[in-house]
Amino acid sequence: MKILIVDDFSTMRRIIKNLLRDLGFTNTDEADDGNTALPMLRSGKYDFLVTDWNMPGMSGIDLLKEVRADDALKTLPVLMVTAEAKRDQIVAAAQAGVNGYVVKPFTAAVLKEKIEKIFERIQ
Amino acid sequence: MSNIKKNQTELDSEITDKLRGQATALMEHVEAGNYVKAMGVINDLSEVRDQSLYIEVGRLTRSLHEAIRNFQIDPQNEEQQQALSMMTDASDRLEYVIQMTSKAANRTMDLVEDAMPRVNAMRDQARSLRDDWQRLRRREMAPAEFRELYTRIDNYFITVADDAEAMYGSLSEILLAQDFQDLTGQVIHKVTTLVKEVEEHLLNLVVMAGHVDQLTGTVHELEKQEETSPEKGEGPQMRAAERADVVSGQDDVDDLLSSLGF
């Protein structure tokens, strides 16, 4: 299971990386925005994408749309972990095809639950 | 400020006297059928109107200058220069907050990431020793194996003591890494005070500009505010609990998503 973590703050990437490791996912890579993430996703055979929304360069919602529009990537499960908390935004993310939505600040338990739920639905 | 308010309703007595005099003169000329003279008076009248306008605008300009000076964007002496540098200083200060919080977060995570495998190793060793110890108590252990267990227990006591000491050290360093809160708190307080001051001065400027517009009869067409699209990231929302358009937490998000068929 190879996972890409996208967030512009290195501390948040580190926190998510640690939480994923505790859940047994040790094969993780990091990117600091959509522009860096997209080429990695296209060449790297990732099984799961965890992304923030608000980032300089390409935002998480645009990254999600790019992923869904790409034939090779469109089935990639995407979990959004973000501080964006407007109802309109959550609806927009759902319409764009997000698989899960976690609002910051979050707990390890919430992250675990959402990830497990996503994999349950896929299998 | 109070000056301006008064000026709005009361014109200079000199001007009001003039106005009154000219109005009577105008009436007299019209009644006498002397229209050329009447036109002349009307001309004088509009001159008086312009004159009073100039006086008002002059007054406002002076107040405006004063407000700008208070706003500290027109430094004329060392003291004001210093005050101006507070503004640039504010962004440096906020940059400092980012640095401090990031340093503390990384330091804490370094120590935690260092301690986690140690704790795991301690747990694994303890479990394995407990299993062997149970076997010994059930008398399922050969003497050679017991001698090996004996040494392992000995070593375990040593490593546990060492690891516990190291971890205590890490914990107290993590405690110390939280000292940023005090420093960044002070910095943010200072910046907040500055922002409040600037806001007050800005408000004064806006009120004054409004009076100038009133006097000159200028009407501004307000530019349409850019509509915020939900696509645009906004960061954390303040007072989420009081707002209907914002979710108050993960439970709210889950409810919303399940209402959408998730």
Give the uncertain stretches of chain A in residue-range form: none
- The oligomeric state of the chains shown is heterodimer
User: What is the third-level CATH name, the topology of chain A?
Assistant: Rossmann fold
Q: How big is the Rg of chain B?
A: 39 Å
Helix residue percentage of chain B: over 70%
Instruction: Give the CATH topology of the largest domain in chain B.
Output: Helix Hairpins
Spell out the CATH superfamily of the largest domain in chain B.
Answer: Helix hairpin bin
What string gives the helices and strands of chain A in order? EHEHEHEHEH
For the record, the CATH architecture of the largest domain in chain B stands as: Orthogonal Bundle
SS field, number of helical segments of chain B: 7
Could you give the count of β-strands of chain B? Answer: 0
Largest sheet features of chain B: none
Mean pLDDT of chain B: 83
What report would you give on this structure?
The complex is a heterodimer of chains A (123) and B (262). Chain A has 123 residues and is an alpha/beta fold. Chain A has a single domain, classed as 3-Layer(aba) Sandwich (Rossmann fold), CATH 3.40.50. In chain A, 48% of the residues lie in helices and 19% in strands. Chain A has helices at residues 10-22, 34-44, 60-69, 87-96, 108-122; strands at 2-6, 27-31, 48-51, 78-82, 100-103. Chain A has a five-stranded parallel β-sheet with strand order 2-1-3-4-5, with helices on both faces. Chain A is globular, with a radius of gyration of 13 Å. Chain B folds into two domains: 1-71 and 200-217; 80-178, Helix Hairpins (Orthogonal Bundle), CATH 1.10.287. In chain B, helix 2 (13-31) packs antiparallel against helix 3 (35-71), helix 3 (35-71) packs antiparallel against helix 6 and helix 4 (78-137) runs antiparallel to helix 5. The two termini of chain B are 58 Å apart. The model of chain B is unreliable at 1-9 (pLDDT under 50). Classes of the chains: A alpha/beta (123), B mainly alpha (262).
